[in-house]
């Protein structure tokens, strides 16, 4: 099994001028970790393999120093090259089953899912966590397949809740348009008290790109988000 991970504030990086500007990604990520980010995904769709490995290595050093896991978007080869904690795979990437064979049981494998069917397959193939989205429309990722909203995410959580221990045990984060104005409401909406004896399946955290990377003070942005997502729901 992969390690125990706190998914509550999941940072997905972006190196584009529009979001990162002229700043250094590793410095920005370190500030975000100091603010309370609990896991980092290095997502970089444009750099060559050499640059990806170099940046991933530098990010991994910072993450390790703070005991925060690092996963790599899309690229199993880069994750292997730097021996970080895992990968995050979309629907068009290497299948989860192949990734598991390559990386073994101890690495984290995350999957992007937008539907119950995609969630079912990702769980069956052994994903450790699901990045469920797209929650809200966002400029950060233009080609988002589907905006599923809070209700779409709730439906997937309910499916996981009702589909056995493995599905219930698969961690979840939501992604797309999460920011300081909506994070707490999202967490509360995705945490429904259950009349049954069992604890309901809830979202384990929010995945955020621009609301942490874009601000001039990523540490403060992360710290504000952290307290919003970890404040217990009023009915708890
Ligand atoms: N996948 C679905 S939406 C998204 C990804 C990578 C981008 C989310 O970015 P932001 O800035 O947090 O809305
Ligand atoms: Mg991908």
UniProtKB/TrEMBL annotation:
Residues passing through the membrane, by range: none
Domain Thiamine phosphate synthase/TenI: from-to ranges: 9-212
Stretch forming the signal peptide: none
Lineage: superkingdom: Eukaryota
Function comment: Condenses 4-methyl-5-(beta-hydroxyethyl)thiazole monophosphate (THZ-P) and 2-methyl-4-amino-5-hydroxymethyl pyrimidine pyrophosphate (HMP-PP) to form thiamine monophosphate (TMP).
Protein family membership: In the C-terminal section; belongs to the Thz kinase family.
Record protein name field: TMP-TENI-domain-containing protein
